[in-house]
Amino acid sequence: MMQLFLPLNFLGFVYREIRGALANIERMFSLLDKHPMIVDSPQALDFQPSKGELSFEQVSFSYDERPILRDVSFKVAAGKKVAVVGDSGAGKSTLIKLLFRFYDVDQGAIKIDGQDIRHLTQDALRRAIAIVPQDTVLFNDSLVENIRYGRPSASDEEVRNAIKLAHLEQFIDSLAQGWDTKVGERGLKLSGGEKQRVAIARAILKGSPVLVFDEATSSLDSRSEQAILSALREVAKGHTSLVVAHRLSTIVDADQIVVLSQGEIVEQGNHQTLLLANGLYAKLWRIQNEQQHAHLSS
Ligand code: ATP
């Protein structure tokens, strides 16, 4: 019997190892978003930014010779919240891709705490920034492991705190298996708003000095949107935040709003000063308000 048990036991071990490795490869590809062109230089620094000040300095960028961003300059001071708004296709998400070095800028520089991000290891850069993307990737695993992914060494206590701050507590309590519920392709499907809150909980656990929030284009119901906004306010405390916003109502409290049009900054200021300036921002604000009123009265 023992002679049979040992090889079977070994096979079981091999099966679990392979399954684990496949799951890791799956995670790796979904997270790296398949951008292998950027390679660390041998002198790249493993720099740990402390303040998290961001600066875009005269950044220009083209996709296959099609100019997308032209001479874009703005700063996000440490601990402040800056929002980028503009028409669809203005280049907002491209700014985030450049910040993550999915591509390198053609001209100018992006800096964190004064360091050009091209001089940092990609590991250091990704540790410095937590992102809440438009569409969060969920692994075929339990909800708690999906959240803990933000920092695998986090204790249960820390995970519980992140769940609370991300306003996921009520949702998790409503599930029969609580945080052990399987999610992802082969498990429970989460709504867009719930997925974004999982990403917020991950970002809280990660604890990076810079937070990037790429707001989903599709609108959420207003309760879900409010839950996300108040969760974001929790994460933003003590962090530098860069928000790409589609709904202007979500960024009226931003310290600075950068308005992009066809890859160029056309206005910068806070909500009040931009309304007074009566330019593109004021126009976008009026259009969104009209749409909202039309929606409410239909
Ligand atoms: P939206 O509000 O619709 O999300 P956006 O302001 O975020 O738009 P970007 O996604 O930055 O706009 O896109 C800017 C322009 O770059 C668009 O015209 C888009 O078609 C183009 N673009 C985006 N990604 C690529 C790519 N990988 N290759 C080529 N062109 C691209």
Describe this entry's structure for a reader:
The protein is of the alpha/beta class and 298 residues long. Helix content is 41%, strand content 22%. The chain contains 10 helices and 12 strands. A 6-stranded mixed sheet has the order 6-9-10-3-11-12, sandwiched between helices. The chain has a 4-stranded antiparallel sheet with strand order 2-1-4-5, with helices on one face. Strands 7-8 form a two-stranded antiparallel ribbon. 31% of the residues are buried. The model is unreliable at 28-34 (pLDDT under 50). Bound molecules: adenosine-5'-triphosphate. Adenosine-5'-triphosphate binds at residues 63, 68, 86, 88-94, 217. It comes from Shewanella glacialipiscicola. Keywords: ATP-binding, Membrane, Nucleotide-binding, Transmembrane, Transmembrane helix. This is ABC transporter. Residues 54-287 form the ABC transporter domain. The chain crosses the membrane at residues 1-15.
Brief summary of the model shown:
The protein is of the alpha/beta class and 298 residues long. It has ten helices and twelve strands. The structure holds adenosine-5'-triphosphate.
